[in-house]
Design brief:
By secondary structure, the protein is of the alpha/beta class. The chain has 24 helices and 16 strands. The longest helix has 38 residues. The chain starts with 15 loop residues before the first helix and ends with a helix.
Length: 716
């Protein structure tokens, strides 16, 4: 799976002082996003506890402490830790659910926070189990459309969230919204311009500060009430700690247990997927390799501890990490600076956070959300070249932004499945041969071979590949029916490259066999695995490999040959094709040298390494030459029938046998010609010996041509 390129060339190494300055600038840029994002989400999440504790204080500590803990314990180059949108929103859902049941269960604020923390800790236990079971590797099978869609969905959620809240004015449609939207737009444009003009300056932070100062100055012209502050002024406060005593856990489980566990599972699934998708980007785009399963386990442990402390757990933040990676690369200092800045924000925020207008923070969130969307999704060229992938990515992104990460997860899985099926179907036909280009390793005499070659264009061979599911098999059936021509009477499906068939695909295969049979076309499948063969039943004719399937088609062709063209076995005598053209006296003298041998079914004639130099001719039955015996365990080199010679290599060169020969099915009878007897015969009939040697040369030539044809088919 390939991730989108950042589009920036690697920068040259900076001097140490300049590198530190760049790391600090990148950290400030990331913090400028974390402050409004994490604090805003924290205020939303802890809203049910209003009146119990300072919401601003709780939001500030949740924005700082969990990320600081992860940075200290799990430092990673270029990776910034902060609360994510999914975790914060689901934290809010859990807290609201518990708060709704609090009156009936007699729960106070600290107890509500304790139950919420226990539920969120359970979610991170589930997330850790995904890492323990090493299920993180499954994310590698997600197509690029889904991973881009999730990244864009997170960014769009940040943008849409600001639109729904009226850019900090309070609500969409509020009378103050136009002024707040103008301030947010000013932050976006100013930060964008600063980044393009001075890449090493924390442009987003500078834009937020400048717009905030402008808003403060606008108060002199009667606009002070237009802009809403980020938080109400209040004294310094520490975090609210959960109260674990006096909680009726049994009654809580009976009334809210199912809802809370469902939210915990949802949080684990969606947050895990976000983390894993970004890990792939780190590996492919920035060369930052890591064990995704180990990351899930470690982040889950620390996240559970933070949840039990009543804080929103932090996780790998893709949006903030991308800012650091874009500005300073795989820096180890920038994440530490970011954690330190957020700790300072938490400690001092009570004294200055109320001076910041929400509109300027909303602008920062909008820009961060736009940066979160992968660059190819903004590219018109990418939309033209990969239209389907581009549409799928935006579909997943919009579902994520409009509904939720859970619905987007389902939509992404559906898109991934459909994309996989579409790709599998589009490439299911690897090679199509409609003119009889392929032949089996069954060797026949010249006249018979000429008849077969003349009619092999009636055999169509389809090489298929990929996992065979219902949709893929249906597409295959349609393609086979469309490509077949009226002359075709036999079809061979070569399934060597098909790792598995499901039951629905086999049902499609049986339907294809039935339909073709009604048209007078016979179908056979080569290399169908044993499990699929058993499920397919007797309706589907199957063979161990393509060679034997082709032999079946050739035998069917020969069965249609007119009787007057058929060669009677034994018509040329025991020498078969070697006796053709010999003078009667010479042939009789050579036949006198022959020794007859009967071969039982599934028996060897000779084995690899044997040192005899006999030339053999088949009298009846068939003899198969394979690389090893039994024949099913080796590669079939050739099958010879009545009247055909074999074993000529050892006969001519004296080298040990290079293959095994035996009867693969029924019994056979062969005759042997010893090399010593042949040499003695040559002394008497030297001119006739030239005819025999020419016959052996023709045999070798035909077999070499067949091997060349088979090798060409393999290479294609």
């Amino acid at each position: 799976m390939a991730m989108a390129s950042s589009g920036r060339a690697p920068s040259a190494p900076l001097p140490q002082r300049e590198s530190r300055a760049a790391a600090r600038a990148a950290a400030w840029s990331a913090a400028a996003v974390t402050v409004p994002h994490a604090v805003g989400l924290g205020l939303l999440a802890f809203a049910p506890l209003v009146g119990v504790h300072s919401l601003a204080a709780q939001a500030l500590w949740s924005a700082a402490l969990p990320g600081l803990l992860l940075t200290l314990v799990l430092p990673r180059a270029g990776v910034v830790y902060a609360p994510s949108t999914v975790v914060a929103l689901l934290f809010a859902a859990v807290l609201a659910t518990v708060q709704g049941a609090a009156p009936s269960l007699g729960l106070q604020g600290p107890q509500v926070l304790a139950v919420t923390g226990a539920t969120v800790a359970l979610a991170f236990v589930f997330q850790g189990m995904l890492g323990v079971l090493r299920l993180a590797s499954a994310a590698r099978f997600l197509p690029i459309s889904v991973t881009h869609g999730f990244a864009a969905g997170v960014g769009l959620s940040m943008v849409f969230g600001q639109v729904r809240t009226g850019f900090g004015s309070g609500a969409l449609g509020d009378a103050r919204m136009p002024w707040n939207a103008l301030a947010a737009l000013a932050v976006v444009l100013l930060a964008w311009g600063l980044r393009r003009r001075w890449p090493q300056v924390p442009g987003l932070l500078a834009a937020v500060v400048l717009v905030s100062l402008a808003v403060a100055g606008a108060g002199q012209w009667g606009l002070g009430e237009v802009f809403v502050a980020a938080a109400p002024p209040g004294p310094f406060a520490g975090p609210l700690w959960p109260g674990w005593g006096g909680i009726p856990w049994v009654a809580l489980a009976q009334t809210q247990g199912q809802a809370l566990v469902t939210l915990a599972l949802l949080m684990a699934m969606v947050n895990s997927l976000e983390v894993l998708v970004f890990q792939q980007e780190l590996e492919l785009e920035h060369g930052l390799r890591s064990d995704a399963n180990a990351i899930l386990r470690r982040e889950s442990l620390l996240g559970a501890l933070c949840a039990l402390a009543g804080l929103i757990p932090a996780s790998t933040s893709a949006s903030r990490s991308r800012i650091v990676l874009a500005e300073v690369g795989a820096s180890r200092a920038a994440p530490r600076w970011h954690a330190g800045i957020m700790l300072g924000v938490a400690c001092t925020g009570a004294w200055w956070l109320h001076w910041l207008p929400m509109a300027s923070l909303a602008g920062g969130l909008i820009l961060a959300g736009l940066w979160q969307v992968p660059r190819p999704l903004w590219s018109a060229r990418h939309a033209r070249q990969a239209r389907v992938t581009w549409v799928q990515s935006w579909l997943v992104a919009l579902v994520f932004a409009v509904f939720s990460g859970a619905v987007a997860l389902v939509a992404g899985l559906v898109v991934a499945t459909l994309a996989l099926l579409r790709d599998s179907a589009s490439t299911v036909l690897r090679h199509v041969r409609l003119d009889g280009e392929l032949r089996s390793r069954r060797l026949r005499r010249a006249a018979t071979e000429g008849w077969v070659a003349q009619h092999m264009n009636q055999v169509a061979v389809f090489e298929v590949q990929g996992v065979m599911s219902f949709g893929v098999a249906a597409h295959l059936s349609e393609q086979v029916r469309a490509l077949l021509q009226p002359r075709h009477r036999w079809v061979v499906l070569n399934a060597t490259r098909v790792p598995s068939w499901d039951s629905t695909a086999l049902a499609q295969l049986r339907a294809l066999v039935r339909d073709l049979q009604q048209q007078g076309i016979a179908l056979a499948v080569a290399s169908l695995d044993a499990v699929a063969q058993a499920q397919a039943g007797s309706t589907v004719r199957s063979f161990a490999d393509l060679d034997r399937a082709l032999e079946w088609a050739e035998v069917q062709i020969l069965a249609l040959r007119p009787a007057h063209l058929r060669v009677r076995h034994g018509s040329a005598g025991p020498l078969g094709e070697l006796g053709e053209g010999l003078a009667p006296a010479a042939r009789q003298a050579l036949e006198a040298c022959l020794r007859t041998q009967s071969v039982a079914p599934h028996s060897l004639v000779f084995a690899t390494g044997d040192t005899d130099r006999d030339l053999l001719v088949v009298l009846s039955g068939h003899v198969t030459l394979v690389t090893q015996w039994p024949a099913a365990q080796g590669l079939r080199l050739a099958t010879v029938g009545p009247g055909m010679a074999f074993g000529e290599m050892a006969f001519l060169s004296g080298a040990p046998r290079s293959a095994c020969a035996g009867t693969e099915h029924g019994k056979a009878r062969v005759v042997r010609l010893a090399r010593a007897d042949f040499d003695a015969w040559v002394q008497q009939y030297p001119e006739q010996a030239l005819i025999v040697m020419a016959g052996l040369a023709q045999i070798g030539t035909r077999r070499l041509a067949a091997t060349t044809q088979q090798l060409r088919a393999v290479l294609e």
